[in-house]
Amino acid sequence: MIFTTTATINKSIDVVWSIFTDTKTWATWYGGKLSKINPDWQKGAQLEWELGAPSTVIDFVSFKKICTKGGSGIIMNYLFSEVNERSTTVTFEKDFNQSTLSISNVSVVKSQLDEDLMRFKKYVESQIGYETNNKQEVSVNVKTALDEIPPQSNSAKKWWQLNKLNFFNNLFGNKKWKASTGEFVVFKQKYMKPFLKGTTNTYEEWTAPNVKVAKEFLKCHEVTAQQYYLSVETPEGNWCKDRQGVYQD
User: Fold this and answer.
1) Is the domain 2-126 a CATH 3.30.530.20 member?
2) How far apart are CA 181 and CA 74, in angstroms?
3) Helices (DSSP H) in the chain: which residue ranges?
4) Could you give phi then psi for residue 246, rounded to 5 degrees?
């Protein structure tokens, strides 16, 4: 028996995929804490949970699907389909056909699956400025940010003067990032290239006026997704960042 639920999430497929593959977010919508992916999101990887036996990734296609199988034989299929630049259709499937467990209450299983997807949808849509695959993990709680306008303390005022432009750039999609020196790192392009075994590498390219600003930009933007690369072009050469850290190209 297979249970299915589908929803349209009002975020780009990049953002949806980024949040889904971020292990830190699972506790907010799944109901169980995903401690680690070993080695990373790919076929054959192990999902290690805070409680319970690990699951195995049995199928993986970047930005398309992730299928896992637990110790009891239950298969979870997570499917992603781009609707347009600002919305994504997501389907959760729970497959009991190979499971050793019996289903005592069909309605409860279906209800729990629906609730998981609705929690995921709500969480994703609440994230403002969350840019691609944890690539730029600049999620902003708008209410908290707006509560600080105008800031009450001197430290808050200083923080807001340095960061308010970046906040609104992230909020409204302006592809510029302002460094502490007042100089800008400017978005150039983002693209994907096929890689080994059906996987895809994603590249995000920016330009900066100098190495110092490029390094500050890379330091402020965490990359935790597999096969995602930030690159900043400067007159002195290119500086890049992936899951392993910062390096010169």
Assistant:
1) yes
2) 53
3) 13-20, 26-29, 106-126, 142-147, 154-172, 211-220
4) -95, 140
Distance between CA atoms of residues 99 and 72, nearest Å:
6
* Domain spans in the chain, listed from the N-terminal domain onward: 2-126, 136-248
* CA dist., res. 16 & res. 25, Å (int): 11
Q: Per-residue pLDDT tens, the chain, 249 aa: give them.
A: 899 999 999 988 888 998 999 888 999 998 788 998 988 889 999 999 988 889 999 999 888 999 999 888 999 999 999 898 789 999 999 999 988 877 888 889 999 999 999 999 999 988 765 544 344 333 444 444 444 455 555 655 555 555 555 555 555 455 678 788 888 888 887 778 877 777 788 888 899 999 999 999 998 888 888 888 999 999 999 999 998 999 998
Q: What is the pTM of this model?
A: 0.54
